[in-house]
Amino acid sequence: MSIRVIVADDQEIVRTGLAMILDAQPDIDVVGEAADGRRAVELARRLRPDVCLFDIRMPGLDGIQATRLLAGPAVEDPLAVVVITTFDLDEYVYDALRAGARGFLLKDAGTVLLSQAVHAAANGDALIAPSITARLLGAFAQSGPTSRPVRPIEALTSREEQILVTVARGRTNNEIADELYISLSTVKSHIASLMAKLGARNRVEIAMWAYETNRVKN
Predict the structure, then answer these.
(1) Helices (H), the chain
(2) Residue at 103 is within a domain
(3) Is 44 within 8 Å of 52 (Cβ atoms)?
(4) Which residues contact 205 (CB under 8 A, 6 or more apart)?
(5) Residue 159's pLDDT is what?
(6) Residue 64's domain is classified under what CATH number?
(7) d(Cα 58, Cα 35) in Å, to the nearest integer?
(8) Whether residue 197 has pLDDT greater than 70
(9) Do 97 and 178 belong to one domain?
(10) Dihedral in degrees, nearest 10, Cα atoms 96, 97, 99, 104
(11) Does pLDDT of 139 surpass 80?
């Protein structure tokens, strides 16, 4: 089945370009477009897409606010949101991830990475390109979390600590399995355990916790 996506960007040429690129993929279907965050939230709530691709800077309701309304801590059935930004050190990326975004990418990322970002979000693999992800998460973690990092409800095992670091570095489940010589099902089991112990809802929150607690160094 096709991955249903809505695209929100206030620049028509960018929005149209993103939609055309995604629609050209055999298993992605753009079901809606919006020029501002408020319209994006309305569309998302009505259409319930598999993935929302939101620009950060939009008039009225920006991408961070829209993300929080659709994927924030108070949302019972959150949608998958990928934030897209122009600058690789955009000051709003950290806030967007805190608001519930599963991942992010840059507008100059290219067709392949854009498609990968959508597939990753749809599959629950929130981190996108390791070269971008690690640098950005690290930079924003260094700026200091808004609150003290949560303490795990149960101590992490040595294997969970290993997997925590690989997730923070942007590895996919398959890459983690290959790197640690374990099965894919074992990787998924450990990640589920990490989410439960950390109270994390997705891989981005796992990665952010790793940076905030200095498990990963730049």
Answers:
(1) 12-23, 37-47, 63-71, 93-98, 111-123, 130-142, 158-168, 173-180, 184-198, 203-212
(2) yes
(3) yes
(4) 97, 195, 198
(5) 96
(6) 3.40.50.2300
(7) 8
(8) yes
(9) no
(10) 60
(11) no
Can you tell me the mean pLDDT for 15-37?
95
pLDDT over 70 (residue 143): no
pLDDT at 134: 60
Rounded to whole angstroms, the Cα distance separating 109 from 145 reads 27
Rounded-to-integer distance, Cα 10 and Cα 160, Å: 41
Q: How much is the pLDDT for 137?
A: 61
User: How far apart (Å, rounded) are the C-alpha atoms in residues 17 and 201?
Assistant: 31
Number of neighbours of residue 61 by Cβ within 10 angstroms: 17
pLDDT at 217 over 70: no
Q: Measure the CA–CA gap between 79 and 8, rounded to whole angstroms.
A: 14
Buried b (16+ CB within 10 A) or exposed e, 19-50: bebbeebeebebbbbbbbbbbbbebbeeeebb
Task: Establish if 136 belongs to a structural domain.
Answer: no
Inter-residue contact 19 to 60 (CB < 8 Å): no
- For the chain, what's the residue count? 218
Quick one: how far is CA 153 from the chain centroid? 24
Structure-token pair, residue 142: 């260094």
The answer to whether residue 142 sits within a structural domain is no
Average pLDDT, stretch 25-31? Answer: 95
In terms of domains, do 182 and 78 share one? no
